[in-house]
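Hi P.,

Sorry for the delay on this. The queue was packed all week, but I finally got your sequence through. Input first:
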Amino acid sequence: MKEIVSVGYCLPTHDDDFIKLDSNSSLSDADLVIFCPDFKTTNFSYGLNSTYKGKISYDLNTSSRIIEATKHWRKELNSYLKSGRNLFIFLCQKNEFYIDTGQRNTSGTGRNQKVTNIVDSFNNYKVFPFDIDVNNAKGKKIISKNELLKSFYNSFEKNLSFEAYLEPKDHYTELLQTKTLDKTLSVTFKKDEGQIIILPYLDTSKDEFYDKHGEWTQEGIIFGKKLIQCILEIDKKISSQHERTAKPEWLENEEYNLEKAEEISELIKKKKKSIQKLEDECEELNQAFIEEETFKDLLFETGKPLEVAVIKALEILGYKAENFNNGALELDQVITSPENFRYIGECEGKDSKAIDITKFRQLQDSLNEDFEREEIYEKAFGLLFGNPQRLNPLGTRKDFFTEKCIKGAEREKIGLIKTIDLFFVCKYLSVNNDDKFKKKCRNAIHSSLGSIVKFPDIPKK
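Then the structure:
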């Protein structure tokens, strides 16, 4: 049985196989190492001194311990990989922080003397003796790209999620990706005589894995055994691949070609081209799906996603709409209709309240500041797009705009648009190129300036 140790990762077993990241343990006795650079399993958190540029900044004592631990694991892992053993890494969240270098800058004299600590940026992935570019992002939709992880993927598909992803590199063999194929979640690559296998983080801190005394439950142990079995299977597959002698160059001579093997090789190439074509088509369809789903943001979103959805909705109605930012003035939407009316739009989403006078005032300021621009000769009309009580079902939403907001709109001739009304207009127009209805909607918006816009009834199919 292989001697397995787990550094920084709590593996649910009855064995004494856990090694803390802030220890100086050796890997010499290990046949297989599982490694996770997760600082939550260390005592480094007790060294929090302050923050710098919005990130944790450790005190000198803890910084020294982090640097020593980093040197220790780089040395241990280098020796481990040079011996031909395989390293499994769980891809946890990347933590960026600052460490105290021990250097000091002194300015001033006497009572006015000031001492500045010199800090340096650091992250938990610097414990490895090789570079891997990690970015934080969370998600659950994962697909398998390689047979090497077939058993692992099938066993943990329901448990799999990701906290981070990898920037692709030429020497990587990709194993797992996100559903949209835009992020790499698992790779394998050679380092010295060993092989490195990076896997998505599997959470073993679930309540059902621990009893009231903090010991592993039977459910946790079963999970751990299944995980070890999968890792040993991957290790065996990789090791068996490496036991074969590399083919010499002279074997590529045509006289040694095997006709049947060449036919299969050509068939594989054709299949791969077909797969790539299908993947490209799926990617295009996925992008189209995302574009169409944007309209749903009119029902529940706020901030930038709501702005984007409103612009897309206005475009389907025949308007030209875009964000505006010249460095001095930033506007949610500058809108021009085919009838040559010009509008300034503002968007607002509220979790549980009606749209109030606050955003109304902001729109008024935007209209005035826009009119002050030298190139503008006529003041634009104002449109306020509101998505109030956005987290509630549509049927339960009431009082979309406050009374003050409605009276202010009447006085200033500003149109108030419910984004949920806009959604149903877009739902119809996304499958019906109805220019007459588009014009009716534009007329309804312009004629309703000073009140809540009432769109014309949606035609029945």
